[in-house]
Write a structure and sequence with these properties.
By secondary structure, this protein is mostly helical. The protein is built from 2 helices and no strands.
Length: 82
């Protein structure tokens, strides 16, 4: 598990604690409970975006490699035709 996953789980558990605390104990306000939920969701979205950014970089590198291969292939065909 990465540190991001651990933080997401901690925030998720904190969100559940605050929700149940608000329902049964009325200790935190509704806004505080929603704030913890929003922070959890934003951190989760940010972590997923950063993971997908890495994947997109990988895909871009593979696409550039494929593009270069086609360029070399076209050069080989031009030499063969001559």
């Amino acid at each position: 598990m990465e540190i991001k996953d651990i933080i997401i789980w901690i925030l998720f558990i904190a969100t559940l604690i605050f929700i149940f605390w608000w329902i049964f104990g009325n200790s935190p306000t509704f806004e505080q409970t929603v704030l913890i939920l929003i922070l959890t969701l934003l951190f989760t979205i940010g972590a997923n975006v950063s993971k997908n950014g890495i994947k997109m970089n990988f895909i871009e590198k593979r696409f550039n490699k494929l593009e270069n291969s086609f360029i070399k292939l076209s050069e080989d065909f031009e030499e063969h035709v001559k």
